Structure of Flagellar protein FlgN:
Amino acid sequence: MSADVEIPYEVLNELNGSLKQIIVEFDKAGSRTNSLESAIGRPLGRGALRDQVDRFEGAWNDKRETLKQDIAELQQHVEDVGKGWKDWDTEAALSLSVDQDEAKNLPRKA
């Protein structure tokens, strides 16, 4: 089994963008509660379903915030890994480049 892990930059960038979108959706989710409660209304003068939605949203709100923070932390790690590898790759490429004067002094095949 190989210990090498290969993750293309494009995949890291896509994951980073997806995690950012999830965070935005979590931020917007809380504002949708009032719309849902209004849509449910009080059918037949009863508010039991609406009350259940309110209770669920209250409990989910705390969990959503915790999950959002965890995802934000993961997203930052993904972004840092991508940037770190890209920076290393750029530096490595520059250190391996040979200018025209150096090329004259390289060994040649006989």
Observations:
- DSSP finds four helices and no strands in the chain.
- The chain has a mean pLDDT of 85.
- The two ends are 41 Å apart (CA to CA).
- Residues 15 and 109 are 46 Å apart (CA to CA).
